Amino acid sequence: MKESSQNNHRLGHDKYFHQRKQMVQTQIVSRGVKDQRVIQAFLKIPRHLFVGEELVNQAYDDNPLPIGLGQTISQPYMVAYMLEHLKIESHHKVLEIGTGSGYQTALLCELSKEVYTVERLSQLSLEAKERLTRLGYSSIRYKREDGTLGWDEFAPYERIIISASSPQTPPTLIKQLSDDNGILLCPEGNEYFQEVVRTIKSHGRIQKDNLGSCVFVKLLGKEGWEQ
Ligand code: SAH
């Protein structure tokens, strides 16, 4: 988002920068992520500020971490992999389902123009909002709701990213995706096996393909898993 780079110009310069650089090099670049905008965003966002104090020392590790209420902040590589395939452009409007800690929300802000984020658990949504506001991200729109139903009011979105796994890509979210080469990523599968499924929508045509296996917490809602 435009204002983020002005207001939080100090972001990226903290005592964890070295660890963050290591994370980016060993977990993200060495595994094949090439998109420079994605790499720069990962170098900038202080991941250690998105986990509880007791986990700060593990914030740059190669795995997901608990963020309370049975939820997790995703593994950095998985987030980078999905963001690279989302091909976000700086003029895009993005919808995120599963705000969680807000870490990916901050990355999305660095890559796009507008971010709308939906979380079903009010505690996580409020904590993420507080954290992101403190970091200078002031124009993110937050909603506490079942994200399988998207956010109709501001549709269509050029990009949609779902950070929890579902038996199917929610049809309502496909409806809210831009018809002009819109891209949506959704982890699909069951408790044992999940794959990131990419949906591309263009001039009324919907194409789907698989980007590979992944592990996410459940997307609980009307068009996801039953609550
Ligand atoms: N992107 C997050 C990852 C959070 S884990 C991060 O960077 O921290 C997935 C999140 O999806 C959890 O917070 C969970 O509560 C949320 N979630 C699950 N089902 C949902 C639904 N139907 N609508 C919105 N959020 C949902």
Strand order in the largest sheet: 5-4-3-6-7-8-9
The tally of structural domains comes to 1
What is the class in the CATH system?
Alpha Beta
CATH level 3 topology? Rossmann fold
Put simply, the count of helices is 7
CATH-defined architecture: 3-Layer(aba) Sandwich
Give the N-terminus to C-terminus distance in angstroms: 34 Å
Walk me through what this model shows:
The protein is of the alpha/beta class and 227 residues long. The protein has seven helices and nine strands; from the N terminus they run αααββαβαβαββαβββ. It starts with a helix and ends in a 13-residue tail after the last strand. Strand 3, helix 5 (103-111) and strand 4 (114-119) form a beta-alpha-beta unit. Residues 2-7 have low confidence and may be disordered. The strands form two sheets. It has a seven-stranded mixed β-sheet. A two-stranded antiparallel sheet has the order 1-2. It has a single domain, classed as Vaccinia Virus protein VP39 (Rossmann fold, 3-Layer(aba) Sandwich), CATH 3.40.50.150. The protein binds S-adenosyl-L-homocysteine.
